[in-house]
């Protein structure tokens, strides 16, 4: 009795604590990539222009233009990419649907063989495959999971990806421009705010991915700072070369 109660308690604890993050929703990757790209690309663009000894008005216009162009580009790219991927999956699902309709027994045997390869006894594997194959839509879902590695009911949304990319890129790209819009005339407030934003984004991402927040924040800070430093040096070099 004690053993049974202990096992039940462990099962209950496992059930209560065994939760997973949504890894297929289609919003996290474009949102994270968009924010990072907006911060790094616009910061690098503005520092490159500033390195060329241009006025702060030119830097502001450059930053706003970079924000608009980058946000629309990210949204269009993400929409096209995710939509194309979804169309490819749907095409493969149509192929699998036809095979299930034309050769149901062969597909059932294929599913049974898959379970056998994973350690299920042959008789049990055939029975499981037979029962699961009674419903054509359920059979299609199982074959899609096992053969294609996708869930037909949980495909990323192109619109969600596009909106996430647009909003996050615009927000990230706005940070380097914001000090100028508030009256700053020097580059350093924009750089400081952008670097703080990079560290913050990295720390937030770490909360989602279970990585160390300080490591993720410092990594993004270093990458963004390096990009800004290189473009500033190139801007200064180009300014010297054409003067």
Keywords:
mainly alpha; disordered N terminus; 0% strand; 243 residues
Shape: elongated
Question: What string, H for helix and E for strand, traces the elements in order?
Answer: HHHHHHHHH
Individual helix count: 9
Average pLDDT score = 84
Helix content range of the residues, please? over 70%
Low-confidence stretches: 1-11
User: What summary fits the major beta sheet?
Assistant: none
Instruction: Name the beta content range.
Output: under 5%
How many strand segments? 0
As a whole number of angstroms, the C-alpha radius of gyration is 26 Å
Structural class, by secondary structure, is mainly alpha
| Measured distance between first and last alpha carbons | 88 Å
Quick overview:
This protein has 243 residues and is mainly α. The protein has helices at residues 2-17, 28-51, 56-102, 104-117, 122-132, 136-148, 158-181, 188-209, 213-242.
Protein described:
It is a single chain. The protein has 243 residues and is an all-alpha fold. The chain contains 9 helices and no strands. It is elongated. 33% of the residues are buried.
């Amino acid at each position: 009795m004690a053993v049974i109660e202990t096992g039940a308690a462990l099962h209950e604890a496992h059930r209560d604590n065994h939760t997973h993050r949504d890894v297929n929703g289609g919003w996290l990757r474009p949102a994270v990539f968009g924010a990072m790209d907006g911060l790094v690309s616009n910061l690098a663009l503005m520092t490159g222009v500033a390195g060329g000894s241009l006025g702060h008005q030119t830097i502001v216009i450059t930053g706003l233009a970079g924000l608009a162009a980058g946000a629309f580009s990210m949204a269009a790219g993400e929409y096209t990419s995710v939509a194309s991927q979804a169309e490819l999956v749907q095409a493969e699902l149509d192929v699998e649907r036809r095979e299930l309709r034309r050769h149901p027994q062969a597909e059932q045997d294929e599913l049974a063989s898959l379970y056998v390869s994973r350690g299920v006894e042959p008789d049990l594997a055939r029975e499981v495959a037979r029962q699961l194959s009674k419903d054509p839509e359920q059979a299609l879902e199982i074959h899609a999971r096992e053969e294609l590695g996708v869930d037909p009911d949980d495909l990323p949304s192109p619109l969600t990806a596009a909106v996430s990319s647009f909003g996050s890129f615009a927000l990230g790209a706005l940070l380097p421009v914001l000090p100028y819009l508030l009256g700053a005339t020097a580059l350093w407030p924009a750089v400081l705010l952008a670097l703080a934003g990079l560290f913050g984004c990295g720390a937030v991402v770490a909360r989602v991915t279970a990585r160390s927040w300080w490591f993720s924040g410092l990594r993004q800070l270093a990458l963004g700072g390096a990009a800004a430093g290189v473009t500033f040096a190139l801007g200064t070099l180009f300014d010297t070369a054409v003067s």
